[in-house]
Amino acid sequence: HHQPWPWPQHLPYRCLHLACIRRACDVILEFYHNIGIVHQPPTETMSRFNISHETIINAPVDRVWKELIAIDDWNWNRWTKLKAETPTEGVKGKLLASYEGDEVWKEFDFQFGRVSESEYLLTWIGSVGPKGCLFSGNHTMQLERMNENETRLIHREEFGGALPKIGLGLPYKTLDRNYLLMNESLKQCVEKK
């Protein structure tokens, strides 16, 4: 049982938001512990809203990778923009999401995860709350060479934290649709060249 949590008078008011998030995470983690659920890191915390799409692109893998890794030139992508200095592991940036592909953008913080040219792998991560306890999203776009002229695009996002477990945080059905649209749009862009 928790005692009421008073706001420490010596902390500036602007810290209230972060302190409230931390307190909410503590309460959620204690609740999980009390009902026998052990907290796992966000990358291992699964959600029923996880998204996965595969698309075959009729183009060599190197040509597809060139379009995918050129984050400053994602003209083919009306749903997601990654604004960062360079697509390199650890680099932070702003993700812009347009849920309807209509140039109305919402902005989120993100950080690049693994990025590997030899594996044709581009990942990025976003989270809310300490260690992603409220929300985490691990986004992966990876290419597989099928043959000289065909490439498989594997596009996934795994969600963790308390909010996705109860269906809150993002419009998951819309994202599911949009990630497939992104795949198809990249396919059309590359195959036209």
Q: Can you walk through the features of this model?
A:
- The relative contact order is 0.20.
- This protein has a seven-stranded antiparallel sheet with strand order 1-7-6-5-4-3-2.
- Strand 2 and strand 3 (92-97) form a beta hairpin.
- The model is unreliable at 1-16 and 37-46 (pLDDT under 50).
- It is 27% helix and 31% strand.
- It starts with 15 loop residues before the first helix and ends with a helix.
- By secondary structure, the chain is α+β, with helices and mostly antiparallel strands.
Task: List the topology elements.
Elements: H1 16-34, E1 51-57, H2 61-69, E2 80-83, E3 92-97, E4 106-116, E5 121-128, E6 135-147, E7 150-160, H3 162-165, H4 172-192
Antiparallel strand pairs: 1-7, 2-3, 3-4, 4-5, 5-6, 6-7
**In total, how many beta strands?**
7
| Percent of residues in beta strands | 25-35%
Tell me the strand order in the biggest sheet. Answer: 1-7-6-5-4-3-2
- How would you sum up the major sheet? 7 strands, antiparallel
Number of helices: 4
Q: How does the helix and strand content classify structurally?
A: alpha+beta
The overall average pLDDT, rounded, is 84
Shape: globular
Helix percentage: 25-40%
Q: Uncertain regions: pLDDT < 50 for 5+ in a row?
A: 1-16, 37-46
Gap between N and C termini: 63 Å
What string, H for helix and E for strand, traces the elements in order?
HEHEEEEEEHH
Task: Report the radius of gyration as a whole number of Å.
Answer: 19 Å
